Amino acid sequence: MSTLDRIAEIQAQAEAAIAAAADSSSLEDVRVHYLGRKAELPLLLRSVGSLQPTERAAVGSAANQTRKQLEMLLGAREEELAHAGIGDPGSSIDITLPGSPPLPPGHLHLITETRRDIEDVFLGLGFQIAEGPEVEYVKYNFDALNTDPTHPSRARTDTFYVDDDTVLRVHTSPVQVRAMMAQPPPLYVIAPGRVYRPDNDATHTPQFHQVEGLAVDDGVTLADLKGTLLAVARQIFGSEREILLRPHFFPFTEPSVEVDVSCFNCDSGYLPGGDRCPLCKGSGWLEVLGAGMVDPNVFAYVADHGYDPDKVTGFAFGMGIERIAMLRHGIPDLRLYFENDMRFLRQFGAR
């Protein structure tokens, strides 16, 4: 028998053995028998150099083609065996069953859950939800909100600029301007959404979420603002909470205030054992948001849309959703929200 005839015989025997293999283990035995290091075909390939010059090319080509053909058949048969019987009637594997153990159902991310909680509170108070673009014009992000041309927030180190006239919004306050331009007073809206600032540490991230609000009507006062925020604080943090207003400055409100809520982790700054509360640092208060009465200059920007600063008044406020979630759940680092560590995220499933 010539060498070429023997190669053809090996191929026929191997193809039959591959087709007859009933499982992966049997198929591996076939592979080792015909293509293993000590198998006849590989040994023949390695000995081509010792053949007569007139035989080398034909034998080498035939042996190499046979090896490739068998490798292809082995791969195809392996895939067939891997899927054989799955889902077929009488199969021992039912692909419609859940995994073992079954995977827990998914749930809202903590930021989404907190945002919806806040939205529900304001919807219950009669506010509507307004949304706007995250890539915003400078005129709405700064100019319409009475932000001085020299204000530090306009610097390229404090704001992401797309071009000279366009930025990634640094707050959702531009939505308030757009809402006033779209609807005359009375107006009661909140503007939740993503905002962007070039900060990144334990308490700041380049992207975060805010809920800002605006109420405009006849005769709105600071007392209305305080009453609204007290109701919101008690809904979010507990019915026993009180709030404290401290003087502050924001370009778009006058007067402006920082709003604190009484600490829900302690009694006046100290724990029952006498230790200082780690949440409020012994002060008894937690800073939660900024607010104030809408500056008349903001109304003047939209006066043509029914907001005469001599006739209407209003209040505005803004809170960070991450900040609210941190306080409610004792989260020490903002970056945990976005690192996708499932051990952290699974703690805040639907309750």
Structural notes for this entry:
- The mean pLDDT is 89.
- It is built from eleven helices and ten strands.
- It has helices at residues 3-20, 24-35, 40-46, 53-83, 110-124, 138-141, 173-182, 222-237, 296-301, 321-329, 342-345; strands spanning 128-129, 135-137, 161-163, 166-168, 187-196, 207-217, 243-250, 253-262, 285-294, 313-320.
- It has a seven-stranded mixed β-sheet, with helices on both faces.
- Helix 3 (40-46) packs antiparallel against helix 4.
- It is elongated.
- Helix content is 38%, strand content 19%.
- It has two domains: 3-83; 110-348, Bira Bifunctional Protein, Domain 2 (BirA Bifunctional Protein, domain 2, 2-Layer Sandwich), CATH 3.30.930.
- The protein has 351 residues and is of the alpha+beta class.
- The longest helix is centred in the N-terminal third of the chain and has 31 residues, at 53-83.
List the helices and strands and how they pair.
Blueprint: H1 3-20, H2 24-35, H3 40-46, H4 53-83, H5 110-124, E1 128-129, E2 135-137, H6 138-141, E3 161-163, E4 166-168, H7 173-182, E5 187-196, E6 207-217, H8 222-237, E7 243-250, E8 253-262, E9 285-294, H9 296-301, E10 313-320, H10 321-329, H11 342-345
Parallel strand pairs: 1-5
Antiparallel strand pairs: 2-4, 3-4, 5-6, 6-10, 7-8, 8-9, 9-10
Briefly characterize the structure.
This protein is an alpha+beta fold and 351 residues long.
The value of Rg in angstroms is 36 Å
Name of the CATH architecture of the largest domain: 2-Layer Sandwich
What is the H level of CATH, i.e. the homologous superfamily of the largest domain?
A: Bira Bifunctional Protein, Domain 2
H/I helix tally:
11
Number of domains: 2
